[in-house]
Amino acid sequence: MKKTFTCSICTLLLVLFLSFSSLFGGIGVEPTVIEISIAPGGKAKGIFTVVNDGDESVQVVVQRENWPRKKEAMDVGSWLQIKPQEFTLGPKEIKKVRYKIRVPENAKGELMSMVFFATTAPSMGTLSIRTRFGVALYVAVKGTEILEGKILDLKVEKLKPGEEMEKLHFMVLVENIGNVHVRPRGKVVVEDGEGKKLDEVEIQYGWPVFPEDRHLYDGYWETEQILPGIYRAKAIFNYGDIYSGLEGQFDKEIVFEVTGRGELFTRGKDND
What is the rounded radius of gyration, in angstroms, for the C-alpha atoms of the chain? Predict the structure, then answer.
């Protein structure tokens, strides 16, 4: 019975180790990103799970830092508490680190922080940082969010043909002019010159766009043959899966021509 129980514990630890999306310097932290929404004056709490995947004990220090991208940000110490902030983690040991968030009444838009989990080593009688792993923490202030984005540019190029398929590369430059970060989810609808829909191209998803910032997203259309003619491409984006109940989208179109020699030229652009 004791042997079975021990094996079950070992199996559980192995599953936990494998489920951590990031292991850095012998430690892993889950979750690696936190995105929540809290009303002004509201509170929330949660847990970081830290695991030592190494064969030696490590000293871990938790460090809160203001978000480097956000201008005139509220000091993280005024809204985020973490306990414990320092602890020893034995080989294969798992530790729960609790955090509490209290959104100030006058907060607007979004609170952002990087929470670092640093392992330390003795150095000349003091502790020096050996490795450091960061977790991004985003707190949207409910009721004050401004979701507003635009597509600054939409380009298309024809890649060199492969062995079987031809490929078009769509490049969409998205700007965030709101006050919270977004992870836009988008597609490009491809039509022929008569308006007949040919395909939908999924655009890469996941990379955030921060307020007053922009990001270039890519998508690829593969088809057996791209016939000469006029085409229309329309990029359609929404604000992603973060903000439930807050909907909206933005788009942009271009018209391009593929010649009989297989060359591609953009003929004109229609703004959103």
Answer: 24
